[in-house]
Amino acid sequence: xxxxxxxxxxxxxxxxxxxxxxxxxxxxxxxxxxxxxxxxxxxxxxxxxxxxxxxxxxxxxxxxxxxxxxxxxxxxxxxxxxxxxxxx
Length: 88
Hints:
mainly alpha, 0% strand
């Protein structure tokens, strides 16, 4: 979703010779910079996305099992849905 947004808005994304070496931070950073210019994202949404990226979304991308409360996962899903709507 964030990669598609960067592409559609032609936001400059950090270059890697191998596409596999890009991660979500490489796309999130240009979106935050663009937001500073146009203000299309709510500050609380940015805060939530950054919180949940570090506490939930990143740990879930690894093979170790994370003990994360259900409420935090639900809140993370809600934040991602809000981000999806804001990027449309």
